Amino acid sequence: MSKCESCIVREFNALKSLTREELMRVSACKTAKIFRKGHVIFEEGETLNGVYCVKSGVCKLTKMSENGKDQVVKLVVKGGLLGKRSLVTEQKTNLSAVALNDMEMCFVPKSEIMDDLNKNPKFTMDVLKTMAEDLKDSDESLVNMAQKSVKRRMAEILMYIHDNFGTDDDGYLSIVLSREDYASIVGTATESAIRILSQFKKEDIISTSGKRIKIEDYHSLKWME
Amino acid sequence: MSKCESCIVREFNALKSLTREELMRVSACKTAKIFRKGHVIFEEGETLNGVYCVKSGVCKLTKMSENGKDQVVKLVVKGGLLGKRSLVTEQKTNLSAVALNDMEMCFVPKSEIMDDLNKNPKFTMDVLKTMAEDLKDSDESLVNMAQKSVKRRMAEILMYIHDNFGTDDDGYLSIVLSREDYASIVGTATESAIRILSQFKKEDIISTSGKRIKIEDYHSLKWME
DNA sequence: AATAAAATATGATTTTTGTCAGGTTTTTTT
DNA sequence: AAAAAAACCTGACAAAAATCATATTTTATT
């Protein structure tokens, strides 16, 4: 198995239902692409004709609000897929994708996958499962956004990043975000995000080194009112 | 075609891909149920073994937040389906469903649909499409919740109900919600919801009669800062 | 119809969050 | 290495929203 195959398979378990031949074919027509930090992979309103699979690096999926502020909807890392919706609908994408650091991605044209999607019910069912999971996560996010304070939301995104994407050798969160990104995930003003992180620092809940953040007291984050 | 068939078909267009025979079979094993206003149809954490299709009435899908407040995630009316996710995953439902007025529903056991879902790729593909649409709506809601003021969100839910569920003969919104429900949709305190609606009344943007609300000045709602 | 209960309403106050304005530090470019 | 740009930080204040307390109205129950 090529490296890309295993990459897609690992996280997007929908692809695990493809037969060996199907998988080989999909894998064969992939196109590797490199995106530099800050690069826009696609933008809200574009028509996507395939999915991107993340081989390395991290990107954010954002949506522009009417007030002109970007809202981060999701972070996507190694093995994650961008543009899933494009497989299913002809509609333009509702999200933008921006690389948060240098990224390697595979692009798989829609045409290659559609055939399997139409003929292999098990495969379609598995795609359905991942989408149902996304939907559940989305409900969760909505409730968090609606019912929790900015401070609580900040605490949770720190723990989320810690738990899902891990830390580097020095114990710093392995995903490095700007304060503006934090604000845009939590859904608050940049100054408010900065202020809260400063407060956490004062209370020795986190420490920082430039943009990098280390969680010093997970317990306090978890049980913060 | 029986009444129920056409009901399911009308809104859940996923079912339109079923063959005539498949549809007849599904339709045959449905169970009609009545739920009174306030009745809990199912609760977060329950295992669902089928989907409910709304024949008449309205219900809310809610999720409990850690702070103990319910958040309304979605309103479902005639033709809408509850428990879609249960078709796809073995997991317990992440939402509760509560009737907002008297409701008539059809229950279709999972076992009946699963067969079609596994064998009819076009059907599965259509379910996939509705789920992708749900996901898009969900992204939209998240951004609204994160970036807009409570007042703006209240204005939007009023317009949403007006546009999607219409008005009665007197011009009042045909879905009648308690102030607490409004608060729980908008994601705010009940008092805040009441206060904002009172303010709209003072500004002659809406008028009320008991719980019922009539939009008097749609334009003001739309262009409210 | 009287009573009780629930929902709605409003004032007063506090807490949270946003905005503006001015800094400093870090990063990038020249 | 210097200059410019971007990101970060903090204070002061304003605005938004939550909370608490207490009426009033509506709805349900006896």
Can you give a write-up of this model?
Chains A, B: One of its GO terms (molecular function) is DNA binding. Chains A, B: Residues 14-105 form the Cyclic nucleotide-binding domain. 2 copies of one chain form a homodimer. The first copy, chain A, has helices spanning 3-11, 20-28, 110-119, 121-147, 150-165, 179-186, 190-202, 218-223; strands at residues 31-35, 40-42, 50-56, 59-64, 70-76, 81-82, 96-99, 103-109, 206-209, 212-215. In chain A, strand 9 and strand 10 (212-215) form a beta hairpin. In chain A, helix 6 crosses helix 7. Chain A has 2 domains: 4-145, Jelly Rolls (Sandwich); 148-222, Arc Repressor Mutant, subunit A. Chain A is built from 8 helices and 10 strands. Chain A is 44% helix and 22% strand. The model of chain A is unreliable at 6-11 (pLDDT under 50). By secondary structure, chain A is α+β, with helices and mostly antiparallel strands. The interface between A and B is large, with 44 and 44 residues. Chain B binds a DNA duplex (30 and 30 nucleotides) through helix 7.
